[in-house]
Amino acid sequence: VDNLKYHICAQNFETGGVDVVAMDVEGCEYVDYPTVEGQQGMVAYYVYGVNQQGVGYGWISNTLVIGTPYALPFEESFAGEGARYSTWRSQSQDPDSQWGIAASGTYPVAAPYDNDGGLVTFKCQEEGDSGTLVSSKIDLGNAESPVVEFRWFATKLEDCRIYVDVIVADGEMQRIGTVNYEDAPSEGWQKAQFSLDAYAGLGLPVQVAFTAKCPAGAAFVHMDNIMVKENYDYNLALTGFNVPSRMMVGELSKIRVQVENRGKKTAKDFTVELYRDGKLEQTLEGVTTLPDGVREYVFDVTPSNTWSDNVNWHAKVVYGNDQYAGDNTSATMETKLK
Fold it and tell me: What gap in Å lies between CA 36 and CA 65, rounded to an integer?
């Protein structure tokens, strides 16, 4: 034991391999200063005992997220079968029961809630298996009424649970709520929302953890549109923008805009605007929308031969009472004219 030293390696989360940090370390403490590419990254270490007999089996540490916490709103929709944030972490005792991103759900079949080509799924391989999906670190800032909100896909064929916990500054998980499949009013996408008021004003970063557990094997839990946000009274969001990739001069085309009321109160007296090449093209009056309500607005567009061959479109919700304008404007989409 007196001759025991240690090799330390770091998990490389990009390649799946390990990188050497230090060799032949004496004593039981070593300080590493990992760097982060981007705003956040993950670190985990393997420690190997070594002496004249050889190198022992490595032992892995817990995984930590390092870097600067993300500000509100934290929004992840897994669009295009990918993740906006790179520091999501899946952990499970059974390697066959894991969380993963998919273009759509299977068993039960489910299109993404927002039709953006992606959702996240937990596959329960064996009876009683569970798996936990842990978010990036998030700064609640000066939020007065923060919440975690997500969509989950209900089915009467399974009696699964989704346990929602908060981790404060790399501490222990603290339970804030449970989704019970038996309580679903119907099959299909449902909304879950849990308060984070107890963590507002602490000045410490938080992570949200989702643990799925199913009593039977070969079951799947689907989730989408995970958000940590301020729960405003008035907040309209432009959540969908569908523009044809091609249009014919002189022929009618349709551009569709989806608007969701993410506020706690009914929204009215607003407009939806369509812009062509940065200039206002059309305006539609908004229809009174209840909380959690979603409405589609359809713009009829007939291209002119005076337009450019490539037209850039974007849409905007104009709402005087809106308390958060960061989700009011769409991305810019391009149409080619024939």
Answer: 10
